[in-house]
Specification:
- By secondary structure, the chain is α/β, with parallel strands linked by helices.
- It is 62% helix and 10% strand.
- It has 19 helices and 10 strands.
- The strands form 2 sheets. The chain has a 6-stranded mixed β-sheet with strand order 6-7-8-3-9-10, with helices on both faces. A 4-stranded antiparallel β-sheet has the order 2-1-4-5.
- The protein is elongated, with a radius of gyration of 36 Å.
């Protein structure tokens, strides 16, 4: 993205979203950059009045008048400076971070979910987040304000020095030219470091997150691999820190050299002013003002050049942010609403592979499901069952083939209208840190206060035992908030309860009883199969025993649907389904064989 385009977007963002703060910051920096000129003129007048009073018997009133004027100016200047500092920090930086983070969240919600399988997109997101975290965009805005507003201040200050002697502004500017070069080099190297370290920082932060997760901490301590992960984290941390420290040391050396040159320039200016005073080319008052002005012009021009040097590196980081935001913006299309009930779902020759993978996760899969059917998807791990469901729901888009709902292409459907008909239980079920009623009623939250309905669902998933006491009534669940902590089986039953509470016509269950014991699994499945009557239901399961009770079974192998039929039909075929069924049956047969 071109630098001019990035800068324009930043200006538009601040003057549209934070107009009052941006205007005040501009006015504050105009005053800040005119301050050296004002104080130089006032100091010259004060020194001249002091010289007249002490040497030529001048009036004391003039001396006190200029002193009072300087005092009043300094009081007002510092009041305005303090107020502007609060306004800039709380307004420009804090509010900007709020808006920019909101835009990142909005962008993340717009990305197709398949993009979260893409390492390059995740890296792009991390760079955008680093840009916001390090205040690069408000930093660019303030650098631009400094550059624009300092031009008038620098010009007036150099003209004032030039009036005293034309060589003075030349010496002052020459002594700070090095700042533009050093900052340009350092910011370019800083950007290169930021981009090269993104992957390592992601890995470092991921490993650190394992030490703050109760489940992983429990496993790593019991199984004894906490030390290994700690070493991995230290290795990534040290690599990131070492490269950052190298850059910091280089930055320190550059700044020391720049300050040394500036100091030499200041001493040169002082010596030159003394020579001018000896030759009576300037008065004592002007001499004092020159010393003040010379230091001021070094600071102002040095900041100006430093800002120019920093700007390209900051803009590159801001370009990463806008690149991420722009990638999330999808072309708006006119989508159809799903009208009425779902009569048929059909997948025709679906093919799909994940980013950065050469192997197809689903290949040439075709399946038609009719209203009210209970269909089971079975197959070994990695056969493509869960991926097929994500394609069926439009979470992922097939590379080839089409998904139809009521003969309408899923690509042309508004997904929200489809999801209003759909209840989904994923493998990654969760216990939300909310009340028990909210945990059940999240899928139809407007009816959270219908306690009888909530209790009925809890009984259907065999969670009614927790209703015996009042300890969970209205309290936030989860150990983090002092509430009850549930087992994985209880969490899964609550998640299943959410699906039942939603009362949708299409129900999709991905391993709905994976965390349950066999007896409870049997009871819940029996209950669920009763409830499923009249609903279109798709159940993914490794456990083929339940397949005896569904209408149809689709068997997946290496991404393809290799068999389809009911239990008796597939057993008679003596194919993949029969092999799966027989292998699992051996564990339950009394004599160890069929």
């Amino acid at each position: 993205m071109k630098s001019t385009k990035v800068i324009w977007r930043i200006f538009r963002f601040f003057f549209c979203k934070l107009s009052m703060e941006s205007i005040f910051a501009s006015l504050a920096y105009i005053l800040e950059n005119m301050h050296p000129t004002i104080i130089t003129i006032l100091s010259a007048a004060l020194f001249e009045a002091a010289d007249r009073y002490l040497v030529r018997n001048g009036e004391a009133a003039d001396l006190w008048g200029y002193a009072a004027l300087i005092i009043i100016y300094f009081v007002l200047y510092n009041i305005l400076r303090t107020f502007s500092s609060v306004c800039i920090n709380a307004g420009i930086y804090e509010k900007a971070m709020h808006w920019l983070n909101n835009d990142i969240v909005a962008a993340a919600s717009r990305f197709p979910l398949i993009q979260y399988e893409n390492d390059e997109m995740l890296t792009c997101k991390r760079r955008a987040m680093e840009c916001v975290k390090n205040d690069r965009i408000p930093g660019i805005f303030m650098l631009l304000i400094v550059l624009i507003t300092s031009i008038a201040g620098i010009f007036s200050l150099l003209v004032t020095l030039g009036i005293y002697h034309p060589l003075l502004p030349i010496i002052a500017v020459a002594s700070v030219l090095q700042f533009i070069f050093s900052n340009w080099v350092l910011e370019k190297e800083s950007y290169r470091l930021e981009t090269s370290m993104v992957q390592r920082r992601r890995k470092r932060d991921y490993i650190w997150s394992l030490f703050t997760n109760l489940e992983s901490v429990r496993e790593m301590h019991v199984m004894g691999f906490a030390g290994y992960l700690a070493d991995q984290w230290k290795s990534e941390r040290d690599e990131v820190n070492e490269k950052q420290w190298r850059l910091d040391r280089k930055r320190s050396r550059y700044y020391m050299l720049c300050d040394a040159v500036r100091t030499i320039g200041y001493l040169t200016g002082v010596i030159f002013c003394v020579l001018l005073l000896q030759k009576s080319m300037i008065s004592v008052g002007v001499f004092g003002a020159c010393l003040v002005a010379f230091a001021s012009v070094q600071n102002v021009v040095g900041n100006f050049f430093g800002s120019i040097g920093k700007l390209p590196g900051f803009v590159r980081l801001a370009a990463d942010y806008y690149s991420y935001i722009d990638r999330s913006i999808q072309k708006k299309e006119t989508l159809q609403e799903l009208q009425g009930s779902i009569r048929t779902i059909e997948l025709k020759n679906i093919c799909f592979k994940y980013p950065n993978s050469e192997k197809e996760a689903v290949k040439a899969a075709s399946l038609k499901i009719h209203q009210g059917e209970v269909v089971s998807l079975v197959g070994v791990n990695g056969s493509g069952k869960t991926t097929l469901i994500k394609l069926l729901l439009g979470i992922y888009v097939p590379e080839q083939g089409t998904v139809f709902y009521n003969d309408m292409d899923l690509k042309t459907l508004n997904k929200e209208s489809l999801y209003q008909h759909t209840g989904l239980l994923t493998q990654d079920f969760a216990l939300y840190h909310l009340s028990l009623d909210e945990n059940i009623a999240l899928t139809d939250i407007d009816h959270v206060y219908e306690k009888a309905r909530v209790r009925e669902v809890l009984k259907k998933v065999h969670m009614d035992a927790i209703l015996d006491g009042e300890e969970n009534d209205g309290k936030i669940l989860g150990r983090d908030f002092g509430g009850a902590e549930f087992s994985e089986g209880q969490k899964q039953r609550l998640a299943l309860g959410r699906v039942l509470f939603a009362d949708r016509e299409l129900v999709i269950l991905d391993e709905p009883t994976s965390a349950l014991d066999p007896i409870l699994e049997n009871e819940i499945l029996e209950e669920f199969l009763k409830i499923s009557k009249g609903r279109t239901t798709i159940i993914i399961s490794h456990r083929v025993g339940l397949c005896r009770f569904v209408d149809r079974i689709a068997v997946m192998k290496e991404g393809s649907i290799v068999e389809c039929g009911n239990h008796d039909q597939l057993m008679a075929k003596k194919g993949e389904y029969r092999n799966l069924y027989c292998v699992q049956s051996k564990w339950y047969a009394d004599n160890g064989s069929l």
